[in-house]
Amino acid sequence: MKILGIESTAHTFSIAIAEKKNREKGKKGEKEEKIKILSNVSDKYPSTLEGYIPRKLADHHAEVFSKLLKEAISKANISLSEIDAVAYSQGSGIGHCLHVGFVAAKALSSMLDVPLVPVNHSVGHIEIGKELYCKTNDPLVVYVSGGNTQIMTLDKTAKRYHVYGETIDIGIGNFVDVLGRTLKLTPPDAVGVVRAAEKGKQFIDLPYTVRGMNLAFSGLQTYIEKKVLPEVANGKYNVDDVAFSAQETAFAMLCETVERALCHTNKKEVLLCGGNARNQRLQEMLKSMADEHKVNFAVTSFEHSGDQAAMIALTGIKMLEAKCPDLKSTIPRQRFRTDASCICW
Ligand code: FE2
Predict the structure, then answer these.
(1) CB–CB of 7/101 below 8 Å?
(2) % helix / strand / coil in the chain, to the nearest 5?
(3) Residue 7 has what DSSP assignment?
């Protein structure tokens, strides 16, 4: 089975092709084949000081669609007629962007006369981590991105992810992106914060907001704007120290809740996934915690951490094979929580 996946929830438009071969019968019985990613091509709208304007993102996605479709097909070395289904990122995400991906996927699936598979974006991030990077099939999931920060495990009876803790305001990725713009870093996003944080030396005390198993980041952002930036202007601190202290504080908050969830669930593996899983300092802190508890630490690769369509195509294969009930509702869902998806595979 070959599935073409489309991702378009935010600043990235991406097309991928994933394949799962039929089960082979060998001497030792049936052998379950791993899903292979045949191609995974993306085009990201650049970050600017004005932030992301939904209409501009949607225009970008519509413009790059044809080019990426040709690239994805050519890299996979297949023809379009070999595609058995088209999966797309159903949500959560920015409405304008989601609709470009939906219309493209719907048009392709109608033209090829193959099923349209709606995939929860967050579940895609988790499934690619479990399929390609985990040692176990039942990790404690730490999902960190612009829109989300969630600590979860799979409830096999309910066929849903159970959220143990999450942000109660903005995602950790949104926090660092806004910080990058506030500090006018280059680039003005999470990458700029990482580069500045590496040069920071002085730790500044910042608000640390953990409420039970939940986290809040907007107070940290407001405190930096109102109390710390004036001190940067008068020379007491520099922006590198602010970036360093903000990262250390936010990541320590996350590590505290992850550690508590780990002790509570007794899982043997921690999976870090989502766009901000690329942050090496966050990886280092979570790995050190996992090592102390003698559990495996898994993290998605740089390519498979950010938004990309490989995770959509891969999850689409799992949904189709399991005849998932979520296949019935195909229109985009701007607010589609991770724990609202049926996980029946
Ligand atoms: Fe994402």
Answers:
(1) yes
(2) 45, 20, 30
(3) E
Same structural domain, 104 and 159: no
Do residues 300 and 128 make contact, with C-beta atoms less than 8 angstroms apart?
A: yes
User: 63 and 165 in one domain?
Assistant: no
| Å from CA of 17 to ligand 1 middle | 18
- CATH number, domain containing residue 75: 3.30.420.40
State in Å: Cα 121 to ligand 1 middle.
6
List the beta bridge partners of residue 14: 7, 42
The verdict on residue 326 lying in a domain is yes
Q: What is the pLDDT of residue 50?
A: 80
- Ligand 1 centroid–CA 240 distance in Å is 27
Task: Using alpha carbons, select from 276, 227, 222, 225 the residue that is nearest to residue 247.
Answer: 276
At 29 the pLDDT is 61
Ligand 1 centre distance from Cα of residue 277 (Å): 10
Cα of 12 from ligand 1 centre, angstroms:
9
Hey, what are 75's tokens?
């890299």
252, 316: one domain: no
Q: How many domains does the chain have?
A: 2
Please give the average pLDDT of every successive group of 10 residues along the chain, which has 345 residues: 97 97 66 88 89 93 98 98 98 97 98 98 98 96 95 98 97 95 93 96 97 96 97 95 98 98 98 97 98 98 97 98 95 96 97
CA of 201 to the centre of ligand 1 (A): 31
**284 Cα: distance to centroid of ligand 1 (angstroms):** 21
Ligand 1 centroid to Cα of residue 148, in Å, is 8
156-176 per-residue burial string, b: 16 or more CB within 10 A, e: under 16: eeeebbebbbbbebbbbbbbb
What separation in Å is there between the alpha carbon of 325 and the centre of ligand 1?
23
Domain with 237 in it:
136-299
CA of 145 to the centre of ligand 1 (A): 6
**Sequence-separated (6 or more) residues with CB below 8 Å from residue 259:** 289, 293
| pLDDT at res. 48 | 80
Query: How far is ligand 1, taken at its centre, from the CA of residue 147, in Å?
Result: 8
